[in-house]
Design a protein that fits this description.
This protein folds into 2 domains: 182 residues, Reverse transcriptase/Diguanylate cyclase domain (Alpha-Beta Plaits); 145 residues, GAF domain (Beta-Lactamase, 2-Layer Sandwich). The strands form 3 sheets. A 6-stranded antiparallel β-sheet has the order 10-9-8-13-12-11, with helices on both faces. Strands 2-3-1-6-7 form a 5-stranded mixed β-sheet, with helices on both faces. The chain has a two-stranded antiparallel sheet with strand order 4-5. The longest helix has 19 residues. Helix 9 runs antiparallel to helix 10 and helix 10 packs antiparallel against helix 13. A hairpin with a 6-residue loop joins strand 9 and strand 10. The protein is an alpha+beta fold and 341 residues long. It is built from 13 helices and 13 strands.
Length: 341
């Protein structure tokens, strides 16, 4: 929790009453004051980097362990962020499970990169286990950031570019940080999020499969999921271990036991997902070792009758969202109907 001494290092907070300035739950700066602080920095032409952090799958924490555990999680994260940022800036709560970090030390890309990379460690603030209500929770987050005046000349433009970076991180699978770079991110359009966005994807799958031939249905499905979910690869494997992949124009053979191993792992479930192959190590040690050796950090497998759709990620530890799993389940189910029509 911030103290009067912590805040009075900054002219903006001199004389301020901490009872009004701080968020009552987390002890970080409240939304109104952290955003106005950022606006003041821009007005005074003070260089700084602004980051927005969104916790991954936080709804799962509340639904599984209760809102009191969720509150404890937010409080612990607030304390960890205050400790990590230290004298290099300030932390605020944007709302719900989102936080703002004002990083005063630098606007240089490499310095910001190192700051964020170290934050995603056991010694940092996220991508680590925390203990709340006698429960161990692995906490991950997605961060987007932009620097003033490097990326923007006004507060509104800075916020928009920070939000674009966050959106890019979410579209990559979360559990990552994105630093705004004009050449890479200038054309990002932040689509409407939530039910309508998911609905449009479900309608896309239905339209693609309704208008495709049986021969092309599999290839078009894996290509579409590869495009919209931004995974390392998507492939279909049949009960003869023949693979159709989004990253290959040709079918290929995947080894004698691949389908059998996948079938055992999925069991009676329609969709099986993991954000860490170590989750299956006790039950399927050889499979876990194979995935680890091939740098597979996260995967989803969905039944298509007696066949399977599989997606994997090897650049980040992807936190699969309900949005992802609903879309994959729907695509697998509709593809199965198409192939058996």
């Amino acid at each position: 929790m911030y103290t009067v001494e912590d805040l009075q290092k900054y002219d903006y907070f001199k004389g301020a009453d901490v009872n009004f300035v701080l968020d009552s739950l987390t002890g970080v700066i409240s939304r109104q004051y952290i955003l106005d602080f950022a606006r003041t920095l821009v007005s005074n032409k003070t260089p700084f980097t602004m980051c927005i952090m969104d916790l991954d799958n936080f709804k799962y924490v509340n639904d599984s362990y209760g809102h009191s555990a969720g509150d404890e999680c937010l409080k612990t994260l607030g304390e960890n962020l205050i400790k990590y940022v230290g004298n290099d800036g300030l932390v605020g709560r944007f709302g719900g499970d989102e936080f703002i970090i004002i990083y005063m030390k630098s606007v240089d890309y490499d310095v910001i990169h190192n700051f964020l990379a170290n934050m995603y460690t056991q010694e940092g603030a996220v991508r680590k286990f925390i203990y709340v209500s006698n429960v161990r929770i692995f906490l991950t987050a997605t961060v987007g950031c932009a620097a003033y005046p490097v990326n923007a000349e006004t507060y509104d433009d800075l916020f928009m570019k920070m939000d674009k970076a966050l959106y890019r991180g979410k579209s990559k699978g979360r559990n990552c940080y994105i630093i705004y770079v004009h050449e890479k991110h200038k054309d990002i359009v932040i689509n409407e999020r939530g039910t309508n966005s998911l609905l449009s994807k479900l309608e896309d799958v239905k339209r693609i499969l309704d208008t495709s031939s049986k021969e092309m249905a599999i290839k078009q499905t894996v290509n579409y999921l590869f495009k919209v979910l931004h995974t390392a690869n998507v492939f279909f494997i049949n009960n003869k271990n023949v693979v159709i992949s989004a990253k290959s124009n040709d079918e290929y053979y995947f080894g004698n036991n691949a389908h059998f191993i996948i079938e055992k792992m999925v069991g009676d479930r329609d969709v099986f997902s993991s954000s860490n192959p170590k989750d299956i190590k006790d039950k399927y040690p050889n499979t876990a070792d194979y995935l680890d050796n091939n740098r597979v950090h996260a995967f989803v497998i969905a039944k298509v009758g007696s066949n399977f759709l599989a997606l994997y990620e090897n650049s980040v530890t992807r936190m699969w969202q309900d949005y992802d799993l609903v879309l994959i389940f729907f695509a697998a189910d509709y593809l199965n109907r198409k192939l058996n029509s």
